Amino acid sequence: MKSSRYSAAALAATLKCCVAALIVCILLIGFMRAARRAAEHRNELASQRIQVARAHLDRANERRALVEQYLGPYNQLVQEGSMQRFDRAAAGDWFEAAIRGPVERAVDGYVIGKDAPYVGHENAELSAFRIVSHPLEFTATVEDEDEFADMMKSIETRLPGTTAEEACSLHHDRESGRNEPLAVRCEVIWYEFAPHDAILGANARGTQP
Amino acid sequence: MKACDHYIYITVASLACYRDNAGGLELVADVSTPRNVAVERSALDASLRQFEAHLDRYPHDRYFVITDTQAEAYQSETVPTLPPRDLKLLLNRKLQQRYRSTDYRAVVPHRARPYAFIRNLRRRRSRTTTRILYALINPETLAPWLGALERRAFNVRGLYSLGALMPALMRHLNLPAGADALLVMRTAAGYRHAFVSPSGLRFSRLCVHSGAADSQVTQEIDKTLQYLTMARLWGVDGRHRALHIAIIDAEASSSALTVPVDNPLMKQPVQIRPRDLVANGPAKLLDGANSAWLLFNRAAIRTHGLGCAAGLTLQDAGRRASYRAAALGATAAIALASVGYAALTATAIRESVKRSSTGELIAAHLDATAENSERLTPKADLDADQMRAVVQTRARLLERNIDAAGLMQGIAAALAPFPDLTIDLLEWSYAAAAAGSAPTADGAAPTPPQAILIRLGGHINAHLLKADANAQVSGLATAIGLQLGGLGGIEKLPFDITPEGTLTSKSSDVAAPKPQFSVTATIPVGPKRTS
Asked: Which residues have a Cβ under 8 Å from the Cβ of A15 and sit 6 or more positions away?
């Protein structure tokens, strides 16, 4: 007599096989889940790499665009002497050369003021250099307003570096006579792009040579 | 071998096995059995061996045992209407009380009639229900065969009396709904009578076949009808259901069978052949003398459950078979789902790996492009941002330059309408002294200069009325403001006004020579200072 598959022993064996099959299924599912998680992790890493590489490329392109846009003007500034260091000894020569243009010997005297670090909205983004302002105050005598304008134009164009005329005073002394010249007193600021370790200078006085 | 339904049909003289193969029902074994088991022991042993040999050929089949003997008893029981569980307990108790000598007992399936509850209420009757109990009352004749099945732990799904299954034939007969029927079926044991009402089987008996043929059939039907009337199962006053008589026999009588009719609701017998009921039935059985095979199907047995095997050890193997099927089915479903999940996950993994590879390629390409861009970037000794800052800073510093020529042109234009005013002093500077040239305490960039302050000083160059002189100075202040796009103001009038608002001299007085005046103007720092 063959043993029936519906006996208690056969049922127990069947149940064991079922349990074993379930365990295999659980292991299979676990393995597949782990493999899927690993694949997704790799996918996430690849996505992150793309983001990093894209940011790298954006930075490189941005830097390239900046360099291409500003390298020319910067080099031109350097060539024009805008990055030239302020030499207190040579400043007098610069100034005298500038005012010796249209009106010879118009300047009576000048004072190169004390160096002062300049901090303003103009250089808020600049960190490679600090701005040192060098005030140049001069007095001059001109015949009329046109002569004054020519002199200021000469100073503006001939002084090297970065200068700005920020204050002026013209006085006509009517008491002395009807055709008295104009007494001029002006302040020109010479802005220097100086390294951070530059030493500030003191006042220096000069007169018309 | 595939498990099939296997029907063991036991009569007093034989045991036949029908197997429901793919090709249909088939008679696979026929074992003759001794009528007197106690006397013909050796014959029984031989039959039993033959039966066991047959069983061993089909160990995985589902076995249904159907008896067709006279050794059965039917009993009607009227019990109160109870919840199903309580009703079952009550009926089991009744079965044990009625049939103490046998374990093979069951309740005939009952079909609740529509609106029976409402009808009982209308008739003011108590809420009762009538059930038919039945039992196989000679268990000794069944024991050898059932023992063989139990020893082998075969999947026995039930033990039934053929009479109890006969209501299933009603679905083959086109009888009016709500009618009673007396079914007479020719079987291997004789003629099986079954009285079926709309609520199910009410009575059954086996009439042993003899050579009297048609006359015997009608006589036995008449006897059954008399019993039904006597037992108040049919023909009761107030119950007006027609009685249809159907005789199912493959060898139909040549003449019409008639029974004495004393009730107009009773119909004459109708002869039906199994071929008429099941046109596509098994060819070998369609024309056989035994029509019991009409009930060897799941549909006939479905409502009977385990039948007379309920509660016996005979059905243990069947229960284990159900457990086995459930376990295997659930395991197969889980395995299938797992395999499906694994397949889907494998696909997803492949896709993910492809995406990862593509992503890595894209990242490498972007890196290479970035490096190429860096390589092509012109070299500079300064960082690009600082280079931009230097250029922009210088441009902003140059903007601090006050356009002296423009200012003077504007002032000259403003002064033109006032020829009597002579300018001795002209000054300009940023309004806030040294604004922006010194850092704030917290290191933040100071506010850039917003305005340029212009100051003009001069004197009256003619003899004017004082009021006219003051008016001209006021006009000059206003004109400068308008000309330079700012706001002009008077710092000093040629002829001051006292706090009381009167001139220090009479307004008609001629102005003294060269009275001094001074006006100021505040103009915003902007691209255009002259009109």
From this structure: B327
